[in-house]
Write a structure and sequence with these properties.
Blueprint (H helix, E strand, L loop, with lengths): L1 H25 L14 H29 L2 H14 L1 H10 L3 H16 L8 H4 L9 H7 L7 E4 L3 E4 H10 L6 E4 L2 E4 L1 H13 L5 H6 L3 H17 L43
Antiparallel strand pairs: 1-2, 3-4
Helix pairs in contact: 1-8, 2-9, 4-5, 7-8
Length: 275
């Protein structure tokens, strides 16, 4: 009970801080424009190289070993488990975006998978028509009209924007990787590592596109911004949107499909680990 209260207080503090910072981002009208706003590119490129080295020599080998060692049913169960564990983030943000019908369906999905699906290892909800959605506070801010702000590459966590980084901070108390004990914040490192390895294994088929790109930094940046714009608009991208070609994002987030049907070879888009 005390931990839940502390998490609630932390969320309120983060939201209050956000209100002060967001005013500086709102003037940058990237909420409705996917144009890359990258004034910090020199610094971002340094962090991109740092993250790329960590991915090539640590995370990617772990993901390859994970995919080769564990049978697909086990990997599907791991993916389902983490998807369900993180689903309260989607439920809360669907409500904040005014998607009340979706909020009810998402809540029902979470309860069904948590109880009947043995803590989320299985996905009976998809079989009865309660499909998976994907919402976060970055998308909520976009719905509220807050601009993207500058594009960022965050060490370890990867590509983001000012808006999405702040959104992740607000979402973090609802994630299973953040524990609050006696008023202290502790990260569940083991769970976070397993989640990232599983997540990275789902991007392996996209590696060749990144490796062969003329400028991998630009390729990853543009793919990330396109993907985020697509998600913020719930796929309803204007036909005259010159930056985002929907034909390139027929299935930008395979995780949105039923997790039982999503395999390790499904590609979510050329997005590096740690969003």
């Amino acid at each position: 009970m005390r931990g839940a209260l502390n998490k609630g207080l932390l969320t309120l503090l983060l939201a209050a801080s956000l209100a002060l910072v967001v005013t500086g981002c709102a003037s940058q009208n990237a909420a409705t424009s996917a144009e890359a706003y990258d004034p910090l590119q020199p610094v971002n490129r340094v962090f991109y190289k740092f993250n790329d080295l960590g991915d090539r020599y640590l995370l990617r080998p772990l993901a390859v070993g994970y995919q080769r060692t564990l049978p697909q049913p086990v990997r599907t169960g791991v993916h389902n488990f983490f998807s369900n564990l993180l689903y309260p983030v989607t439920i809360a943000n669907a409500f904040l975006q005014g998607k009340f019908r979706q909020t009810g369906r998402d809540g029902a999905r979470f309860l069904l998978n948590s109880i009947v699906g043995l803590g989320g290892l299985f996905d009976p909800a998809t079989r009865v028509g309660l499909t998976e959605n994907d919402e976060d506070f970055g998308q909520t801010l976009a719905v509220w009209g807050v601009g993207n702000g500058p594009y960022l590459v965050i060490p370890v966590f990867g590509p983001s924007t000012v808006r999405n980084a702040l959104g992740d901070a607000v979402d973090s108390p609802l994630t299973p990787f953040l524990n609050i004990t006696d008023g202290k914040l502790d990260w569940s490192l083991g769970g976070w590592v397993i989640y990232q390895v599983d997540r990275r294994s789902r991007f392996l088929d996209a590696d060749e596109q990144v490796f062969e790109a003329y400028d991998p930094y630009i390729f990853v940046r543009d793919a990330y911004l396109q993907n985020r714009r697509y998600r913020s608009l719930d796929g309803n991208v204007p036909e005259d949107d010159s930056y985002l070609d929907e034909s390139e994002l027929d299935d930008p987030e395979p995780a949105d499909a039923g997790p039982d049907e999503a395999g390790p070879d499904d590609v979510e888009g050329p997005e590096p680990p740690g969003e």
